[in-house]
Amino acid sequence: MEIVEEIRKLRKERGAVILAHNYQRGEVQDVADYTGDSLELARRAATVEADVIVFCGVYFMAETAAILNPTKTVLIPDPTAGCPMADMITGEQLRAFKAKHPGAMAVCYVNSTAEVKAECDLCVTSGNAERVMATVPRDREVIFVPDQHLGGHIAEGEGRTYLLWPGYCPTHARLTAKAIADARKAHPGAPVLVHPECPKDVRDAADERLSTGGMCRYARESSARTILVGTEVGILHRLKTENPDKTFIPVSESLVCPNMKKTTLENLAESLREMKTRVVVPEGIAVRARRAIEAMLAIR
Ligand code: 13P
Ligand code: SF4
Questions:
Q1: Residue 103 Cα, ligand 2 centroid: separation in angstroms?
Q2: Would the CB of 88 count as within 6 Å of ligand 2?
Q3: Which of 157, 217, 233, 245 is deepest in the core (most CB within 10 A)?
Q4: pLDDT value at 1 more than 90
Q5: Same domain, yes or no, for 198 and 159?
Q6: CB of residue 260 inside a 6 A radius of ligand 2
């Protein structure tokens, strides 16, 4: 394919590395140097040696890369690829929430803006939330933003109460417990994996609640031949490519994140050709946001 050749040529000329989230279009994942979940991509972005990082994902992910590796040029092919959940709380709203609960620790899901991260003590991803929160003393009150469902999931596991912001992922909100029951009927015995961004009744109806990276690991290690997948459908490309001998069935075909689909081979090529759009986080915000992200990355 001509465009793939052009991307490869431009990547070399620019000294760029292409990072892609597991929800990206299959053809974008195929041309990327590395595909992963939010945690894996943040770790990769922090240590990349290339001068340019092209981030195929949504805006907060590119911001995280720019915060972690400020001397690099971070590009996003479509700067309008936002995360509606990340935009459900502003820095000002978080400051007001914190003012009502002085002494509480402020924790953000990585799916948040740099401005919100700057207000937080600690950041988590769906891939490390339990591990990271286990380091927070049990008697400490915790504010968790913006995802009520991931927050609820961690709180349930710990048995402590979190002060949750009512944000949610509009894509995962479309998955229902009925869709899981129907999929189980159609494929008896197949394990059901869902993302912890799903509502509680959906999480309860599943066998495993995993980050996208966790799903990739589960798929590799499981002896199940058929696996039912309850998350954004972009992950099926990677699951099928890495496990050609297994069958992966989406619990619902409607789980498409429109923002994750905004990156195409065309705008990826354009991004490299024209070196756009650069993601820059103002230093005053970056310094504070970096503390919350690095505190998370320090916990293995
Ligand atoms: P993970 O890939 O970290 O599981 O996150 C899912 C997601 O919704 C990213 O926007
Ligand atoms: Fe945001 Fe949900 Fe899309 Fe992830 S899948 S980027 S949480 S809207």
A1: 30
A2: no
A3: 233
A4: no
A5: no
A6: yes
Rounded to the nearest angstrom, the distance between the alpha carbon of 211 and the centre of ligand 1 is 6
Buried b (16+ CB within 10 A) or exposed e, 60-74: bbbbbbbbbbeebbb
Q: Are residues 225 and 197 in the same domain?
A: yes
In a domain, 255, yes or no: no
Reported as a single tens digit per residue, the pLDDT across 203-257 is 999 999 999 999 999 999 999 999 999 999 999 999 999 999 999 999 999 999 9
Does residue 65 fall inside a structural domain?
Answer: yes
Q: What is the pLDDT of residue 78?
A: 98
Q: Are residues 64 and 37 in the same domain?
A: yes
> Tokens standing for 289?
């946001």
Mark 145-166 as b/e (b = at least 16 C-beta within 10 Å): bbbbbbbbbbbeeeeeebbbbe
Range of the domain at 192: 172-250
Which residue's alpha carbon is nearest to atom 6 within ligand 2?
A: 83
Query: How many domains in the chain?
Result: 3
Arithmetic mean of pLDDT over the chain: 97
Residue list, ligand 1 pocket, CB within 6 Å: 22, 37-39, 58, 83, 111, 125-127, 197, 211-212
Task: Using DSSP bridges, classify how beta strands 73-75 and 122-124 pair: parallel, antiparallel or unpaired.
Answer: unpaired
**CATH number of the domain that residue 267 is part of:** 3.40.50.10800
* Residues 111-118, mean pLDDT to the nearest whole number: 98
Kindly tell me the sign of the dihedral angle through the C-alpha atoms of 107, 86, 227, 182. Answer: positive
